[in-house]
Amino acid sequence: MKVIYDISVLGTGFYHQRARTGIARVIENVALRLYGSDELDLQLCAFQSFGQFLQARKYLEQDVVPFGECFYRGSGLTKKLIDMMTDIYQEPSASKHQMRIFLRAFNYTLKYLNFLNPSLDQAVLSRADVFHSTFYPLPERTKGEANLRRFITVYDLIPILYPQYFEFNEDHLIHEVVNSIAPGDWVVAISQSTKDDLCNYKEIDPSRVVVTHLAASDSFYPCSDTERIKAVKEKYRIPPAPYILSLCTLEPRKNIAQTIKSFLSLLQENRLSDLNLVLVGTKGWDFEHIFNEISNAPAFRDRIIVTGYIPDEDLAPLYSGAMMFVYPSFYEGFGLPPLEAMQCGVPVI
């Protein structure tokens, strides 16, 4: 069985920390499992745009994963154009002025090359049995292949159900995702809750929506190495004192402002002098009010540590060293961090 699997999100996440979320972790781990299977012929793609195609190539060139050989890079003239554009784009000696000129020409070229994206070459699609879109809407050009079974992963419908928590409200990508699902397609939902939300919102055969439950990866474990925990804390300037941990994108839906308010009340009501709050995660939409909450409490400002993005290899020691983990999100399709914390042996609220 030949499977085409989209890794556009992994390329985006390689360049932009904001895209390095639990979704990217799920996509990468599924790719690893597919790559290790003897039952299928895996081909990776990045079909959303030519820019994401280049980003995915760069991500795979870092040798952080073993499945780079499965990424289709085109053939003939298309491959030569892609290689030439990539070499120019990565030229280290180019000045800022030269790069601005190149990027302007590059953007115009992208509009043309989007039609030449080798990841969705019709000849490639005609030989495939399965096309799996892991985040973006199912592409139109996959509809014409009679023998191609189309799959799409849906993580949640929160932008539809609660648009107030998202920057673009009605124009959010999830509308395009849901509208791209045809009656003959298959949907992978990450939880029964997501399946229920989808089936309630869209007229779809529930038997074609399959729930695949998530789990924390093996990189999360109870770390008993006190020196390792100490080193990670020092790396991110976390004081040598007990701390409450939170890990999520810093945005309104995650309810971080209330977490900060509750933490400040805890300190004041119990007169605690040695407890800190550690907020891990990239800045999302409308994050300013979160930092306003910190600024509004100058006496406790140094007790709240905002680390930004932290790579997976440092998370197990950070989880393991925490007194507890808090995850007061208003709504989730599932939410991996509580499972990761529990797998590290940390109490979860």
Notes on the protein architecture:
- The protein has helices at residues 8-15, 22-35, 50-61, 76-89, 96-113, 122-126, 158-161, 173-179, 192-201, 226-235, 256-270, 288-295, 315-320, 337-343, and strands spanning 2-6, 41-45, 130-133, 149-154, 186-189, 209-211, 243-247, 276-280, 304-308, 324-325.
- It has a six-stranded parallel β-sheet with strand order 2-1-3-4-5-6.
- α1 crosses α3, α4 (76-89) runs antiparallel to α5 (96-113) and α11 runs parallel beside α12 (288-295).
- It folds into two domains: 2-154, no CATH class; 226-343, Glycogen Phosphorylase B (Rossmann fold).
- It is 40% helix and 13% strand.
- It starts with a strand and ends in a 6-residue tail after the last helix.
- It has 349 residues and is an alpha/beta fold.
- It is built from 14 helices and ten strands.
